[in-house]
UniProtKB/TrEMBL annotation:
It comes from the Bacteria. Residues 254-410 form the Thioredoxin domain. Keywords: Cytochrome c-type biogenesis, Disulfide bond, Redox-active center, Signal. It comes from Siphonobacter curvatus. Pfam families: AhpC-TSA. This is Alkyl hydroperoxide reductase. The lineage of its organism: Bacteria, Pseudomonadati, Bacteroidota, Cytophagia, Cytophagales.
Length: 429
């Protein structure tokens, strides 16, 4: 009996050891190789490539960086299972959800996390070591034209739509650039010119975008833009070095007879904050109307946050009023809280309501209309509105960005130097 028992125990131990080996093998953690990758989304049956770089060998210390021309956007990686990754798109309520296959390639989807849009997704695959975007090295076709320069873009639409301006740079087959609109810019786009066709794509965290076009015999361009989860638009491009957008300081204005702004909104803790609160009296106040879902808004915040830190001692306050994709304070506390954390915001953040221009216009009743997120309003020490800027001009726009920053600093220096009414009253007594 003893021999049989010992034999049984040895057999059981051996079986457990073998099973343990299989379990360990089955649960082996798979992580993407360190280096540059090429991903491809499928959007409306179109293939939209994007590039990214992985640094680090495990999720705890890894960085995932999207590559678009000279631009890099960095994200953290979370390992949700031995073969599964979750890459949150920073302040945007969306994520890349991916599976790492044993041969090393990735499959997954770009997934909206907005409560009302959950279920909306774009599938993608990704392969390691492929640094090109559209065309494999050695397979380029000589371009029939050089598209470098400034282009005026007309949108083909049933309703009147403001023209746009593209700034392109072509070196050989490689094409990079940006599209500027009255509400902001596209961020940097990257692509190629092949024969009489061109293509550009961009993916920086928010919705991916694809532009495909043809060079016509008269050197104009015909193109379509596909905005991922959104609609496709047709575009006509004409080279025009004098093309300009409308003045962003003249698009949004106060209604006739108005010279001040007034509002009250809850902060992220639910406390009501008013522009008329003593905290803002006698100070220059910068009001930015934004949304965490809006890339130009986050770019504008990335500019304003460090500027405010460096200048708040000069008698300046700032207020961000966020309009989010769900009309719920708890949801806004999460999304706007992520914005605060990401950019180290030290000024007040309030919740305006649902992301809707009509609603924002109603809540900022002194304005003629809300044309864009972001909209930035500067209020002087005397409480009057000094300036309203529609949209945001990012760094990729070159001279336009430099001009914006130069005017910003010059104007703010001027408004800050003005004496507050209370100070003048005391001095006169």
């Amino acid at each position: 009996m003893k021999k049989n028992a010992i034999s049984l125990l040895k057999g059981t131990a051996l079986t457990l050891s073998v099973l343990s080996g299989f379990t360990s093998q089955a649960q082996q953690t798979l992580f993407p190789k360190e280096g540059v990758w090429r991903g491809v989304f499928t959007i409306n049956e179109q293939k939209v490539p994007f590039n990214f770089e992985v640094k680090g060998h495990e999720a705890e210390d890894a960085t995932f960086s999207l590559i678009n021309g000279t631009r890099r956007d960095h994200f953290h990686v979370k390992q949700t299972a031995p073969d599964s990754l979750f890459i949150k798109m920073n302040t945007y309520d969306a994520a890349l959800v991916a599976k790492v296959h044993p041969d090393g390639h990735l499959t997954g989807e770009y997934r909206s996390l907005v409560p009302s849009l959950r279920g909306n997704s774009l599938p993608f695959t990704a392969e390691y070591g492929k640094t090109y975007r559209f065309v494999e090295p050695g397979k380029d076709i000589a371009p029939t034209a050089n598209l470098s320069g400034k282009w005026e873009i007309k949108l083909i639409s049933k309703e009147p739509v403001a023209n746009q301006v593209a700034l392109l740079e072509q070196k050989g087959n490689k094409l990079t650039g940006v599209i500027m609109t009255v509400v902001g810019d596209s961020r940097e786009l990257e692509g190629t010119v092949q024969g009489n066709e061109f293509v550009l794509s961009g993916f920086t965290g928010p919705n991916p975008v694809l532009i495909k076009g043809k060079i016509n015999e008269d050197k104009t361009l015909s193109a379509e833009i596909d905005r991922g989860l959104y609609v496709t638009q047709k575009l006509e491009w004409t080279k025009n070095k004098k093309a300009e957008l409308p003045d962003p300081y003249a698009l949004t204005q106060l209604k006739e007879g108005q010279n001040k702004l007034d509002f009250e909104f809850p902060d992220l803790n639910g406390k009501t904050v008013k522009l008329s609160d003593p905290k803002y009296k006698g100070k220059v106040v910068i009001v930015e109307i934004i949304g965490t879902w809006c890339p130009n808004c986050t770019d504008q915040t990335a500019f304003l946050s460090p500027w405010f830190k460096a200048n708040k001692h000069r008698g300046v306050e700032a207020i961000a009023v966020g309009f989010e994709q769900k009309d719920d304070l708890n949801y806004a506390k999460y999304t706007l809280g992520k914005l605060k954390e990401k950019y180290g915001i030290e000024y007040d953040i309030l919740f305006g309501g649902l992301a809707d221009k009509k609603l924002a216009s109603e809540k900022f009743a002194a304005l003629n209309k809300m044309m864009a997120f972001p909209t930035t309003i500067i209020i002087g020490r005397d409480g009057t509105v000094k300036q309203i800027h529609t949209g945001y001009t990012g760094e990729i726009t070159g001279k336009y960005y430099k001009s914006y920053v130069k005017k910003w600093n010059k104007d703010l220096d001027k408004y800050i130097a003005e004496e507050a009414p209370a100070t003048r009253d005391v001095a006169a007594r």
